[in-house]
Amino acid sequence: MGDRFAVELHEVSKRYPGGVTAVDGLDLRVREGEVLGFLGPNGAGKTTTMRMLVGLVRPSGGRIRVLGEPPGRQLARVGALIESPTFYPHLSGRDNLRLAARYAGVPDAAADRVLAEVGLTDRAGSPFRTYSLGMKQRLGVAAALLKEPSLLILDEPTNGLDPAGVAEMRELLRTLGQRGQTVLLSSHVLAEVEQVCDRIAVINRGRLVAEGTPDELRGALGTGVLLIDADPTDEAIACLRADDRVAAVQQVDGQLRVSTDPALAGALNRLLVTAGVEVRELRPLRHSLEEAFLELTAPAPSRPQRSDQPAATTGANR
Ligand SMILES: Nc1ncnc2c1ncn2[C@@H]1O[C@H](COP(=O)(O)OP(=O)(O)OP(=O)(O)O)[C@@H](O)[C@H]1O
Q1: ipTM field
Q2: Cα separation of 81 and 141, whole Å?
Q3: 221-260 burial string, b = 16+ CB within 10 Å, else e?
Q4: What is the C-alpha to C-alpha distance for residues 156 and 46, in angstroms, rounded to an integer?
Q5: Residue scoring higher pLDDT (220 or 189)
Q6: 22 by DSSP, 3-state: which?
């Protein structure tokens, strides 16, 4: 993965006629060769952002570069699956792709290459209307791959798929990532992108709210934190700080927030008890990245104050 950027957005906004601000000062960069998960709840502005990247929607403000150029200039090197692709129901998957290949100005033979890449060779001769939703989505990805694009933009490719379809799509995305393809992949389900993405950018109400590798997000969002209520507190702090498996200990409202691998809960409990400290409570601050994501993107009024949390790597606060 290089230090060059396939996609750069600086302070990008989009206000639709009628007053909806779909994207609001968004800063986002996708490195060449990485798979970036673009994550946010429904209506967060993901599709609008992707449509701006391919020149389908004009930004109201800010600066966008796609493969070093303004949007729309590099379309021959960009493959996109934004909203459902249109295929002819009575034509086979292969014939649909051959048609698409002609439109894209690539040889017919590209159709068989991409069918193999998405694992549809066996059903390539069947009419499109007989495909499952998962197969239809994979054919959409195949169409986006026809031009051997440098950048692949996929808007919610797992939307509407059953669990088996999601698993198949995840496997396909993992393969694309392993061969060094730059992929920008949107989803509103964290678990779907967590395993296939090098980095994740979380947006909410058109703004970047957190960004990092899945591990960095876990750390920044407090999923690697144990809450410990112990007595005497000072002794507990000293004991924990002396242990090299513990990255940090903070005291908040009489409780200890211990940055460590939550799997060490039992070991740290034993450590404290052995040192003569009474452990009244010991639990993970949050159980999963999914919980942290939901909290981060919850509607504003119910969102708890997080000022005592280590800050996520945020674009909004940068
Ligand atoms: N053409 C349009 N005209 C007016 N408002 C729009 C238009 N397209 C989208 N919006 C609004 O912009 C906001 C962001 O929508 P967008 O589709 O970009 O979000 P999203 O994160 O992709 O959501 P979803 O996951 O539901 O597709 C929403 O409030 C939506 O209603």
Answers
A1: 0.96
A2: 6
A3: bbbbbbbbbbeeeeebbebbeeeeebeebeeeeebbbbbb
A4: 9
A5: 189
A6: strand
67-76 pLDDT, tens digit each: 999 998 888 8
Ligand 1 centre to CA of 317 (Å) is 24
Q: Are 173 and 196 in contact (CB under 8 A)?
A: yes
From 46, 52, 158, 159, give the residue whose CB has the most ligand 1 atoms within 8 Å, as the site to mutate: 46
Q: Could you tell me the two tokens for 11? A: 């302070």
CB of 19 closer than 6 angstroms to any ligand 1 atom: no
- CA 63, 207, 308: angle at the middle one, nearest 5? 135
Supply φ then ψ for residue 66, to 5 degrees.
-120, 120
Tell me the DSSP string of 72-103.
TTTGGGEEEE-SPPP--TTSBHHHHHHHHHHH
Element containing residue 48 per DSSP (H, E): helix 46-53
Q: Which of 175, 176, 183 is closest to 199 using CA atoms? A: 183
The reported pTM is: 0.79
The enclosing H or E element of 206 equals none
Q: Half-sphere exposure of residue 281, counting CA atoms within 13 Å on the CB side?
A: 9
Digit-coded pLDDT (tens) for 225-258: 899 999 999 999 999 999 999 988 999 888 999 9
Mutation pick for ligand 1 pocket among 13, 14, 20 (CB with most ligand atoms within 8 Å): 20
Which CA distances in Å does 74 have to 7, 68, 71, 157, 161? 11, 9, 7, 22, 31
Give the domains, in start order, of the chain with CATH numbers: 5-218 (3.40.50.300), 224-284 (3.30.70.100)
The strands making up 255-259's β-sheet, listed across from edge to edge, are 248-252, 255-259, 225-231, 278-284
- Count CB neighbours of 44 within 10 A: 23
